[in-house]
Structure formats: structure tokens, C-alpha cells
Specification:
The chain is 42% helix and 6% strand. It is mainly alpha-helical and 496 residues long. The longest helix has 34 residues. The protein is elongated and about 155 Å long. It starts with 12 loop residues before the first helix and ends in a 5-residue tail after the last helix.
Amino acid sequence: MDAGAETPGDFDPFEAIFADSDPADSATPENPSQGASTEAPQAPTANRQPMTRREAREAREAGAARGAGPVPESVPADDALSARPAVPTTDETAAQTDRPAEEHLPFSTFEELTAGPANAGPATDSPLAWRQQHYLSHAEPKKRRSLKPLWVTLVIVAIFGGLVGGAYAVFQPQVTKLVNAITPQDIDYKGNGTGEVLFAIKSGDTGSNVAANLQKAGVTKTYQAFYTLLLRQQPQVEFQPGAFKLAKRMSAQAALLALQDPANKVQNTAVIPEGTAEKDIIPILAAATKLPAADLQAAAANPAAYGLPPEAKTLEGFLFPATYTFTPGVTAQEAIKTLVDRSFQALDQAGVAPADRWKTVVLASIVQREAGLAPDYPKVSRVFLNRLDQGWKLQSDATVAYGTGNTHTVTTTDAERADAGNPYNTYVHPGLPVGPISNPGDLAINAALHPADGPWMFFVTWNLETGETIFSTTADEHDAAVAKWQQWMRDNPGYG
């Protein structure tokens, strides 16, 4: 047998890879070319179990310590897969002491690696089997999956959450203010209100009229709140003329329910609002007194019977607006006289001489219909007096509307303002109109007597809901104010 050749049972691929010694340490007594001792090995013991690598190492070290010969192999001849190389002798162990660890796997080329150890026997391992064992034992551990993407995601989420939280903290007050600016509480009150208000619905009042009058009386907060609610009702609400006991600062819903509740209608009581025309007062009186409207109209047909100035052709202007309670059985004449006497009382208290009653009431009736807010009454009076002093026409839309029979609005058309056949048309006829156009209250009477100081020649109530009015001195200023009012009318067609 050639030097270095081994029997098939002498090679173990596991020992070649994992043994602590060099492959040369695997020399057997039968392989003197590997530098092994020529001493004969001990005879194998029957049924002796194969030694483990640890046992072989310990045996080798023990033999070297006592200078003994090589430890014989304990390998059954028929157990090729369990075969292990013989333990090297003391001289062989000493010869390998200076070898570096790298030489334990002396593979320098791909061919050597794939071919396996030179001493691998065909009966024990094929090159493919040896490569599998080699790579399984020397395979690198599987790399753990990197957590970097997870950490990056968590950082991004944290940054985004911080930005959202910071933005909310900065802009939350502004957002809340914006939301509150469009929420219902800004156009409507809550609850049933407080206090007591006698509210009158006149014959012919539309839902828009009722909505505007409720807001003006302080019952509801805005026109929109009540009118929008009214439009949603099915079937449509039909209001009955009369006086109703309501409260201040009621929600639109509460006010609507109260007006529909017969228990809130005040019996034998008439509420006459400021600026109400005579033709609208008669039905209110009829509802309160239980008298036929025809009887009341007949009683009002003779103004002289009640002591009115000789210029008066009707009772217009002298039916004082107030709240009246009539006893059962009152006559039509008594009811009319109650209102006229109350008007004389107000004029006397204001210091109006009987000779000046007519002119004062006519001017006050125009101021009552044209002015919106209480502070504007004296200024409106001044505008009319300035125009009269300058010889200008009054150009009051309220007088024109009254002449057309419209007592619920002050808006007019171009054709109506150009109609010379209307005796109340102050766009065509100079001076004061031929008679009062409404029944003024104390505020309007005082404004006619005590106008404000100012150069104003024009005014226009541009917001009919709030009563806001613009006063102007020049025509250009007035034209701009009129344009603002016209735009408001387009935006609020319910007032048309």
C-alpha cells in the first residue's frame, strides 16, 4: 500500500473537520509515512464502545504524560460511520505543537475543498457528503432582521403626532372662535325667556312681518332664527290677530309655540305697536273688544266727533299706540275715544300746543316709519327739517308707500315714486304730506319737537333687520349708501 493510503474504515469526515489536532494527528500504526510510532497498538477489546473526541484527547494527554505508547483505537470494523482516527503518539503530539490553528483545515484551492480530505475513503464519505458536512459545521449564523425601518417609522409617527398636537394647541382658540361664529347660539336665544311682553299681531301680518316685529320687540334674537324656523313648518302656520303674552329673549321655537297656544292670547286686551296704521288698528280692536270690525270702522268715520284738528280727514295719527284693556260690553265709540284721548294726553305731556298738534303729528308719523334705531329718531327728524328749510322735497319712500295702500313696508318702485296722482308722494309734491302716515309714539313725537343738530340732507336704513342707518351730506355719499341698502335687499328677499 502506498504511503499515506488508508483503509476505508480509517477516515471519519467529522473528525477531519472538528478534531482539535492537525489531520496528520490521525496517523495510525499502519501508516508510518505520517510519522507515527512503530509500536504495535493494543488489541481491541471485544464489545468496546468507540471513544469520543474528549475521551481520545484525554487518553492522548495521559499517554504523553507517562511516556506510554499510542492508545489503540476502539473502533469496530463494521461501523464505518463511527470510525475515528487513532490517537497519535507522544512524538506525533509533540511534532504538531508548533503548527498554527489555521492548518487544521488545510484547504487552499476550490478543488481541494470540493474533493474533501485526501484520506477520505470511498466507503465512508463521498465528496458531496463531505462538503455538506463541512458547510453545515462552518455555516455563518443567520443575520437577524434589522429593526431600523421600524425605528424610523416610530420616529416619523412621533414627529407627526407632535406637529399635530402643537398645531391644535396653537390654533384651537381660533378654530373654536370660528366655529362659534357660525353656530346657532349667535342667531337665537335658548329657552323660554324671562319677563313679560305683550306682543300684537295685526290683521294682514305675514310671517316675515311677525319675525321682524318679534326681533324688534326683543322677544327673539334675530329675524333669521324665527323666519327660517317658520318656513320649515308643515302645514304652514296661520297667525291670528290679537295680543299675546310672551317673554323677552325667547328661542325662536319657544316663541312660535307660544304664539300658537290659545292660553297665551290676552282676552279683551289690545296691543297697538308704534307706527301702526289706522286700517291695521281696527282689526286689533275688534279682536280685543269682540265688536264687529264694521262697527269700529263706522265709529272712526267722523274724526271731528273726537276733537281732532280740522285738517284731519281720518283718525290716522291720533290713535295712540299702547296696550289697552277693555271691559266687556264696551261700545265701538268708547273704544275709539279711548285711543284718541290717549294721543292728546301724550301730545300735552310733550308740550305740544293744540294749534301745533297737526303739524307735529304729521312729521312724527314720518319719523316713526322711517327711523330704525331709537338714537336715530332725532337725526331723521333733522334731515326732514333741513330739506324743508332748503326748499327740497322730502322724498320719503314711507309716504309714497302709504299713498299706495302699503302700510307694512317703506320700499317703493320707480313708477310709484313718479306717480303725481298719489297725494302722499313727497318725491313729486313739496312740503309735508297731506296727513299723517302712521300713529306715532312718544319717541317719534319728542324727535319731531327736538331734532338733533347736523348738516345731513340724506339718510337710508340699509339694514332693515337691525335698523342701521347711514346719514349723508352729499348726493355721492347717499348714492353709495343706497347701493349698500339695495345689496342687502337682494341678499334678504324676505324683506322685499
